[in-house]
Amino acid sequence: MLPAELHKSLPVHPALWRGSDLARAAGPCIASGFHALDAALPGGGWPVGALTELLSAHEGIGELRVLGHALATLAARGKQLAWIAPPHQPYGPALEAAGIRPASIVIVRTRVARDTLWAAEQALASNACGAVLAWLPEASFTLLRRLQLAAEAGRALALMFRDPRVASATSPAVLRIALDTQDGGLALRLLKRRGAPLLKPILLPALPGHAPHAVDRTAFQESAARSLFAQRVLA
Question: How distant, in Å, are the alpha carbons of 63, 86, 133, 217 from that of 228?
Answer without folding.
Answer: 20, 16, 19, 17
